[in-house]
Write a structure and sequence with these properties.
Helix content: over 70%
Shape: elongated
Order of helices and strands: HHHHHEEHHHHHHHHHHHHHHHH
Strand content: under 5%
Structural class: mainly alpha
Distance between the termini: 38 Å
Mean pLDDT: 84
Number of helices: 21
């Protein structure tokens, strides 16, 4: 398995080789830039190993610096390493998926050991549900929530609806207090996931209704961590509806209820959400403080917590930091963090990658780097249609306003605007 550090080292070595050839040719970064069709800042980032650029960049550099194929050959070696790592990562993911016996049946994510337990629990109807059946049931729901970042929303819809119907049937029966409380937790998780799906599938009204139901279930279960998760997810709706103050109200209530109950990863995620709301309100100082607290919380988080429904890591935090600096007008700092996030996100995290690439396109556009801005935007907008969630559509439409002014003079800019108009 290729170590990611090997790729990082190869990228830095390639950057140093570019700087060496440039200096040997007697050119500074400003003088080389026109030959590459990229900006000086892009060349600076490439030479320090902080930015990936396509093969045509290296073709132009090789020709302009008379490198006699040396730069192009070094890039091809790096590209081969990256491709090999992606193949190995994909094979590993397939093996892990097979190991936990997860399959896609008609597009719905199903755990093989879950269906029988679920059917049995539902068949018991108004009888008491065995704790073991609840364990299997809850484990499958948590797994679905954890996996959702990597699968299309429609693929989970039928699965969630079937389990919601079964839990409703069980809750209508007479259950001991302990079992009923656990069923309420499971109901809250399912309703929260159903709300999340509705929002991502451009259905805000059902999403809000399901978030309210999920919050009610969490309160009945006396599960404060679940309540914090539901409110945190709910806050995404007012953020994208242009109501950041309403989002902050939800996030503050989530943080208050999560104290001593929610995990450090959940706390970090909520603080990152708060930062986005503050930044949208142009309170960048408060946004920066929230991100600093999020980083400290994430430092306390344990890796690979099996029952953790909030998956939040350094890659996603870097994306939030980048977005904060984008809104604050700090384009160079934003670019550094956004590229860091893109380097660490996994290929299967298609939704996160698309959102982060759109942020990078906005940053590059602000710095006058139109060609790569278009490349990043096109990569974000040409994902499978069933992975095009509401947040991505809204972020793309924000980018469109900035991109429109360039579309007359640059073909790729016209392509980006056309792609956004078809959403």
């Amino acid at each position: 398995m290729i170590d990611p550090s090997e790729i990082v080292a190869a990228r830095h070595a390639l950057g140093r080789l570019l700087a060496k050839h440039r200096q040997a040719a007697g050119l500074n970064q400003h003088q080389l830039a026109p030959h590459t069709h990229y900006s000086r800042s892009t060349i600076a980032n490439v030479e320090t190993g902080r930015q990936n650029v396509p093969r045509d960049f290296w073709e132009h550099c090789d020709q302009a610096l008379d490198a006699r194929g040396g730069l192009l050959a070094a890039f091809d070696r790096l590209d081969a390493l990256v491709r090999q790592q992606r193949k190995e990562t994909a094979r590993l993911a397939d093996a892990e998926q097979a190991a936990v016996s997860v399959s896609h049946d008609g597009g719905a994510l199903v755990a093989a050991s879950d269906d029988e337990a679920f059917e049995l629990a539902e068949a018991l109807g108004r009888s008491n549900v065995a704790p073991h059946a609840l364990d299997l049931l809850q484990a499958s729901v948590v797994q679905a929530i954890q996996t959702y970042s990597m699968v299309p929303p429609p693929s989970l819809l039928e699965w969630v609806q079937a389990r919601l119907r079964a839990v409703i049937s069980l809750l209508r029966g007479g259950q001991p207090v302990t079992q009923r409380r656990r069923l309420c937790t499971i109901a809250g998780q399912l309703a929260g996931l159903r709300a999340w799906l509705a929002h991502d599938m451009h259905e805000p009204v059902p999403a809000i209704s399901f978030y309210h139901v999920a919050a009610t279930a969490a309160r009945e279960a006396e599960d404060r961590a679940l309540y914090a998760w539901v409110l945190g997810n709910h806050s995404r709706i007012p953020i994208y509806e242009g109501e950041p103050a309403a989002a902050l109200t939800l996030i503050e209530e989530a943080l208050e209820n999560g104290k001593g109950h929610a995990s450090p990863a959940t706390e970090a995620w909520l603080l990152a959400q708060a930062s986005r709301a503050y930044s949208t309100l142009s309170d960048h100082a408060a946004g920066g403080l929230a991100l600093a607290r999020a980083e400290r919380a994430l430092d306390r988080a344990e890796a690979d917590v099996a029952d953790e429904i909030v998956y939040f890591d350094g890659a996603r935090l870097a994306a939030f930091v980048g977005h904060h600096h984008l809104l604050a007008g700090h384009a160079a700092i934003a670019e550094e963090h956004i590229r860091s996030s893109l380097d660490r996100l996994r290929p299967e995290q298609i939704k996160h990658l698309a959102l982060t690439r759109l942020d990078l396109a906005s940053v590059l556009l602000a710095q006058g780097e139109l060609p790569e801005a278009c490349e990043q935007a096109i990569a974000a907008l040409t994902i499978p249609a069933d992975q095009m969630i509401d947040s991505t559509v809204r972020r793309a439409r924000q980018l469109r306003a900035s991109m429109t002014q360039h579309r007359q003079g640059f073909g790729p800019a016209r392509d980006v605007v056309a792609l956004i108009d078809r959403l």
